[in-house]
Amino acid sequence: MKTRAAVVTESGSPIAVLELRLAEPREGEVLVRVAAAGICHSDWHLVTGDTAHPLPAVLGHEGAGVVEAVGAGVTKVAPGDRVALNWAPYCGTCFLCKKGSPALCRTYVGPLWAGTMLDGTPRFALDDGRPVYHYCGLACFADRTVVPEPCCVPVPDAVPFEIAALIGCAVTTGAGAILNTAALEPGESVVVLGAGGVGLSAVMAARMVGCDPIIVVDRAAAKLEMAADFGASHAVAAGSGALEKVRELTDGFGADCAIEAVGHPQAQATALEATRSGGRCVLVGLAPMGSTTELDTARLVREEKAVLGSYYGSCDPERDFPLLCDHYASGRLPLDRLVSRRWALEEVNDAYAAMLSGEIARGVIAF
Q1: 31 phi and psi, to 5 degrees?
Q2: pLDDT at residue 190 above 90?
Q3: Distance CA 360, CA 262 (A)
Q4: How many Å apart are CA 139 and CA 345, to the nearest integer?
Q5: Domains of the chain
Q6: From the CA atom positions of the chain, what is the Rg in Å?
Q7: Mean pLDDT of the 118-144 span
Q8: How far apart are CA 63 and CA 90, in angstroms?
């Protein structure tokens, strides 16, 4: 069959929208008609080359849609099912899965980073037969895509596709950092560095928990204006004086928890400084491969600060996607606020320009 998809042909070049060949799903695979896909910075790392990945590749790892066909052996979903797409499939039987950390499962990491399905081959191709690779096993910047069965999580009819798509990455990553990784409790203070889709999801989750104060730090004035609408009690401009302001708002100590949702070494160091003694600093943003952050380890010991990595919000998609859908349906997580603007697939470069300018919370490609 044919499909239109947003493709990175080479690092440093604009994203191209191409017509590709798409093979039928094989054993253990699912054909999904994509309804919505979120604009996330992680895909942009392929465009810049900050993330190494086989090219050409179809972007998109935050999506939702309808199952159109299934391959042999698929039992979890059937044609007609509405699904959110999970970019971290897990086996359920390995050491890490049994330890309750399915987001860290290593079983499928090899083929996913090779840009293929779990059998080591891609389903996309150019007209001349040359392979086109799948980013994160999903490649959902396409009107149709083939994904592994473990990547499909059924969602209720009451949850719009664009919300289900964002639950597939930004919401689970940001809210999960609050609910799972940090396990924040009512009354605890939190500072969130970075008010993109992930950071604002963390803010909404912190408000749902009952954290106070909820401080947002960002360099973009537009993002700071958004922060209050998402539940922040205070918005602080990044740069000189930001740390002093955070400490002032937390009785001079720093926050019980700092969430770094940027993925930049300097922001990571700032997050640690904004954390009180005995508090936890949660690193959520994906920094470019090979980057490092210098931490004062003597202070870590003397001040008993905990530095925690949070990958995909420490989630279990089978547990957390439905739970987040319930929080949305009940009004506890007003996720509609995240969707700032919608674009057609052909406007994908404009969507990323808006993301990079800081003018949107989260953009969505609507099919």
Answers
A1: -90, 125
A2: yes
A3: 15
A4: 13
A5: 2-154+334-366 (3.90.180.10), 173-311 (3.40.50.720)
A6: 20
A7: 97
A8: 18
